[in-house]
Amino acid sequence: MRLQKLMAGAGVASRRKAEEWIRAGRVSVNGATARLGASADPEKDEIWLDGRPFAPEPRAYWILHKPRGVLSTTRDPQGRPTVLDLLPAEARGRRLFPVGRLDLDSEGLLLLTNDGEVAQAMLHPSLGCEKEYRVTVRGRLSPANQRALAAGIELDDGPMAPCRVGPVRYDPGTDASTFELTLREGRKRQIRRAVTALGHPVLRLIRTRMGPIRLGRLEPRRARTLTPAERRALPRASSRGTGPGRG
Predict the structure, then answer these.
(1) CATH code where residue 79 lies
(2) Is the distance from CB of 96 to CB of 216 less than 8 angstroms?
(3) pTM (2 decimals)?
(4) Which residues carry out catalysis?
(5) CA dist 63 → 50, 112, 142, 180 (Å)
(6) Number of domains the chain contains
(7) How far from each other are the two terminal CA atoms of the chain, in whole angstroms?
(8) Is the pLDDT of residue 241 over 50?
(9) Which range of residues forms the domain containing residue 38?
(10) Pair 140, 196 in one domain
(11) Measured between alpha carbons, how far is residue 178 from residues 16, 45, 125, 169, 207 in Å?
(12) What is the distance, to the nearest Å, from the Cα of residue 114 to the centroid of all Cα atoms in its chain?
């Protein structure tokens, strides 16, 4: 396995950061300074980082119910709250990172892990890992607009892939429509841009599922580790034959 992929998958660093370390000569394999593009087998080779044996962290998987007003990042220069601030003390000592992002005003399921292989499988477009959202928009979403959304709206950065749109529930008291939306791709503010293009600005957006992982009854601002069954169900990039890629 390529060194940078191995290090990212072990939770030691992101793939980009691992590449920087290799270029800087901080990584060695069997006593020789590694070069970018080198491969290693952690079961057979001696891998060292900064003169010390490479020690992968145990895999960790947490899901968080992100509320509005919290950033889906590990740190913020402006000191705003991030998703790591909501994790319990037992999780904060690990190098966890969020898999994908939710906008500042969006809510719901966020997976945090130190497993780069699972993160890649969750995000890579070619793997088509589904994400499900509960969307509430202003106005009555007409059948024609439902079909247009399902077929794929043309956005400024290219056409949106087809998606599934569930039954629409319209509340005349609030003049709002609520429906389930299932995507296989993830682009910046994609849902908000798509429904706004149809004349229906988003009032509330909650992610309820990522692949096999569901938000369920987890309360806002609460986090928990994955169950053994959920961990076994996680997709892995290597099992699907994908190459390196961020997604």
Answers:
(1) 3.30.70.580
(2) no
(3) 0.79
(4) 103
(5) 32, 6, 34, 20
(6) 3
(7) 19
(8) no
(9) 3-53
(10) yes
(11) 39, 54, 26, 5, 13
(12) 12
